Hints:
Distance between the termini: 35 Å
Keywords: Ribonucleoprotein, Ribosomal protein
Number of helices: 0
Organism: Polaribacter irgensii 23-P
Structural class: mainly beta
Order of helices and strands: EEEEEEE
Radius of gyration: 14 Å
Largest sheet: 4 strands, antiparallel
Shape: globular
Strand content: over 45%
Number of strands: 7
Amino acid sequence: MFRSTxxxxxxxxxxxxxxxxxxxxxxxxxxxxxxxxxxHLEGAINSSSDDFAYQEIETxxxxxxxxxxDGKGSDDIYSFKKKPT
Length: 85
């Protein structure tokens, strides 16, 4: 069983909620073993290809994997930097 003493986010990929196609990345807030409804990550992170393995390295920077057609191999690692809101 997952136990959390603080609030946090769970990031996961799924194709069950059809949005942009392939696997899309979602987040769910975790609060004392309760998960919020999944939220689709908007912007350039999700594409019509498989997007997965999302990792925030800092508050507004991170990386994820995708098999986008413009990549260098089968699955590539992409970095991102979020714009301040």
